[in-house]
Amino acid sequence: MKSVAAAAATLALATSVTARTFTVVNKCSYTVWPGLFTDLNVGPAVPSQPTGWEQKSGQTISFTVPDNWKAGRIWGRRNCNFSTNPGPNSCSDGGCNGGLLCDKHSGTGVPPATVAEFTFQGDGNQDWYDVSLVDGFNIPMRVDNNKGCHIADCPVDLNPNCPAALAGPKDSSGAVVGCKSACVAGLGDPANSPNCCTGSHNTAKTCPPSGVQDYSYFKKGCPNSYAYAYDESSGTALWTCDSSKAADYTVTFCP
Ligand SMILES: *[C@@H]1O[C@H](CO)[C@@H](O)[C@H](O)[C@H]1NC(C)=O
């Protein structure tokens, strides 16, 4: 009896030591509806948090992510109203299949959206993470951690000065609330595009940043973001943190 209790206590301790804490902070002046997607193709473990929620300006929430969580993403949705036809069009941008709760299998978020991406225990037993602008930008974002690993971020609001061909959608007052990547904006032939790194441009070598329209608008504004499909060459796109450190992460909207 005693030894079973002791074993259970040890197990509980081991679990609490290895689970990660994620904190999401909304410092925007507006409500954000975060989405949280787990890539179930690479592992079944899911965080303790629902796949979508409403987070008012100034609110902070925390949840646990099991250490065997393999990969997923967090992003923000703007100007949502789920009362009719809940789904991808319930928000100005970032909306997902499902509604408030993003669908577990297909609820990844409608571009343009700034996306925090995570892979745990990836190559080299590293956490790999980034703030991706591959699908464009909608909300400034920062990912930091409690183990001294590098910050990934796009702290600048890229909406107001977004190049005209990429700007939008707009909110009901006409303000730009999203800035599409050239790929998402559909500039050029999507099947063979230097913006999307498709067709004859589908390798790092044949899809240099110089071929991506307005790459520098995104990368100069947000040097620590992952600004196009092969942005590893910048050296400031994709970040790692030794998985054995079991870092906790904080995702801040409008840092
Ligand atoms: C949400 O949409 C419904 C239906 O269009 C509308 O009646 C309601 O006022 C909207 N709510 C908000 C908070 O805008």
Automatic annotation (TrEMBL):
Signal peptide: 1-19
Residues forming coiled coils: none
Keyword tags: Disulfide bond, Signal
Stored SUPFAM superfamilies: Osmotin, thaumatin-like protein
Pfam families noted in UniProt: Thaumatin (PF00314)
Statement: the UniProt record of this protein carries the keyword Signal: yes
TM stretches of this protein: none
Disulfide links within the chain: 28-254, 80-91, 96-102, 149-241, 154-222, 162-179, 183-196, 197-207
InterPro entries: Osmotin/thaumatin-like_sf, Thaumatin
Gene3D superfamilies from the UniProt entry: Thaumatin
Protein name per the record: Uncharacterized protein
Organism, as annotated: Ganoderma sinense ZZ0214-1
